[in-house]
Amino acid sequence: MSEITPERRDQAIHYLAETDEELAYAVAHVARTEYIAKKVRQTIFAHSKLKTIADRQAEADTAQETIDAMDTYFEALRHREHLRNKRKTEELVWETWRSENSNRRHGAPAS
């Protein structure tokens, strides 16, 4: 495996610094879209003219509005997890560079 270059280290640090707010927004967006999806389902359930609870639940669960709201929620989850995973990769780049740099300072050969 090759060493982490200063350019790659800088790229990782820059990405981490520049995506703090984006990740915070993504986390909030997941919470908001989950809330909306639940409210859409609850509204359809509450306004259903069907008699049994099971039928009302089935209608609410299969309504296109619920499906669309859940699709939005799942897309928000996907985006948040993508950001988290990319940030984790950049953190590993940074930590690897730090380890290599420490080893170099202490005279250990780079791997």
Descriptive account of the structure:
- Helix 1 (6-18) runs antiparallel to helix 4.
- The radius of gyration is 23 Å and the shape is rod-shaped.
- It has one domain (6-97): Helix Hairpins (Orthogonal Bundle), CATH 1.10.287.
- The chain is mainly alpha-helical and 111 residues long.
- It is built from 4 helices and no strands.
> Number of domains in the coordinates?
1
Apparent shape: rod-shaped
Q: Can you tell me the CATH architecture? A: Orthogonal Bundle
Give me the CATH fold name.
Answer: Helix Hairpins
Mean pLDDT: 94
Low-confidence region ranges: none
Number of strands: 0
Termini separation: 7 Å
Strand content of the residues, in percent?
under 5%
Query: Helix tally?
Result: 4
- Bin the helical content: over 70%
Main CATH class? Mainly Alpha
Main beta sheet: none
Order of helices and strands: HHHH
What Rg do the Cα atoms give?
23 Å
Sum this structure up briefly.
With 111 residues, the protein is mainly α.
What characteristics describe this protein?
Helix Hairpins, mainly alpha, single chain, 111 residues
What is the topological layout?
Layout: H1 6-18, H2 20-47, H3 53-62, H4 64-105
Helix pairs in contact: 1-4, 2-3, 2-4
